[in-house]
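Bench notes, afternoon.
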Amino acid sequence: MEYLSTTSLASELDIPPNELFSKLKSFGWIDRQNDKWVLTDLGKQKGGLTRNNLKYGEYIVWPENISLDNSDQPKDNHKLLNATAIGKHFNVSNQRLNLILSELGWIKKDIAGWEITKLGKSLGGRQYEHDTSGGTYVLWPESILSNKNLIRVFSDSTSIVEQPKIIHTQKDDQQSSEPSIKSEPGNFREKFPATFRTKDGHMVRSRAEVIIDNALYDYKLAHAYERKLPIEEDLYSDFFIPTETVYIEYWGMENDPKYLNRKKRS
């Protein structure tokens, strides 16, 4: 996460620097001492840091995504939810929840944690940094619990609007018996339950899909399992890579005429 000096932050916000300094002082985030601006404890809680420069000496920097809404005081912090709280609401672990948010394009993996994307910011997410470890994490407003796209993930009905690229893979595992590019997902899931767990916690339907999912995980490619294709027909693909808008389909039944016909059509 980038940090900006107060002057640079004023430039980003397109306001005069003296106006920003006055605003931060009124918030209690900075104070004037001996003709010098100093960071207060409240300012530190808001993400402010002090830096030193050989030419300019000590100065204050702020996270690039800091909110200057004065209503965003500690008394409202309880309205911001972390991945654990959101995961508990949807009955998944915080690790699984972060992977889902990554699949949606709201956050992306950083060296020391999770970094918020522009889309995530537009939904009210805010990035923070752990005081001790320096790792980054994201908090979300309560409204995220009613976000339609997030809810669809848990109801297995997420749709993607961009035109897909489909990667076909051939059967190499006799254990797989599921029809690929699935239709009628409800009946399919009853007939072929997902009983194989992958490294990232996805539950898939064959050993071959475990290999594919684990490979995507090892290559650090955020991916979703079983996503609806952006077409009128109700068809699902095995894997989806949101950053590339790529659908991956594993063809696991070579001796089924109906299955082969579906493959040719796809």
